[in-house]
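Justification of computing resources. Each target in the renewal requires a structure prediction run like the one illustrated here; the chain below, 200 residues long, is used simply to show the kind of job we budget for.
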Amino acid sequence: MDFFTLVQTRRTVRSFRPDPPPRAAIEQILLAAGWAPSPHGRQPWRFVVVESLERKQLLAQAMGAAWRHHLALDGLDPATIEVRLQRSQERVLNAPVIIVPCLYLNDLDTYPDAERQAAETTMAIQSLGCAVQNMLLAAFALGLAAGWMCAPLFAPAAVRTALALADDLHPQALIPIGYLAQEPKRRPRRPLHELIVQWL
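Resulting structure tokens:
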């Protein structure tokens, strides 16, 4: 399909068939991520591929306590919390493959002032977002389904422990990948005139 069709028909999927995609397809997806733009060409991201049910269970359990705490802070009643928690954990457990993009800052330029160092880190985060977008588009182009879960941003220590990550790997997302089981509802997009605030 052409690029604009790919962009406009890609969707975030939450329900997958149990059959796993071939390893070669996952490697192609990660190769596409590696071609994302990055500050100074440093590629400040690394990826963890999770396929084993045991590791997914550890991941879901580790994040569960944080999810439960955050939902309680939102004022939800215990029954609703358990329903939402179960739904989120099922997304982790039922995805055949999960890719965990991690921010990796070791190779970035260093500056003596905090302002420029913060900008360097922001560039790295923006770059990681580009890498994830490449992954999502590559998965869809290969006939696979994928989603983007931001849970690690809210429970980084839990994810780090469950996956035994080194201290210099900062988990940013979960990208479940597999074959589509149920077509998701597509959310409408804002029209272009609402997105362009100035054209000078």
